[in-house]
Amino acid sequence: MIDEIILLLIRIAKGQSIDSDKYKDFLKKLQSEGIVARTKDGWKLALPPEKIKLREIYEIVEKNEEKDVECDFKEVCDYDYHKKRIERRVKEILEDTTLRDLLFAEHLKNP
User: Fold this and answer.
1) Relative orientation angle of helices 99-109 and 2-13, to the nearest 10 degrees
2) What is the b/e burial string over 50-69, where b = at least 16 CB atoms within 10 angstroms of the residue's CB?
3) I need a labelling partner for 85 at 20 to 30 A (CA). Which of 42, 59, 98, 110 fits?
4) CATH code for position 102
């Protein structure tokens, strides 16, 4: 789902039309977090793309899905430990990546 929301933000940044009904709930979340703003014609970024960190988007989208589970079996605990390590690394990369980075990279691929 995170990839869909990032692509949605790229479309908004480019001024392209989006399916507001399909993403209504996420647009409201992003609006309440100050990422997007409603306009008379649709949606726009509320911040410059270089100010929007992908980690913020990730945390908005994934906010309700994180649940801590107690470990009853060693294998589950080991898996959970490594999963959390991977998630931490992904979040570090997302913290260093902005929406502008993606817009610029896309421009390089499609001049």
Assistant:
1) 70
2) eebbbbbbbebbeeeeeeee
3) 98
4) 1.10.10.10
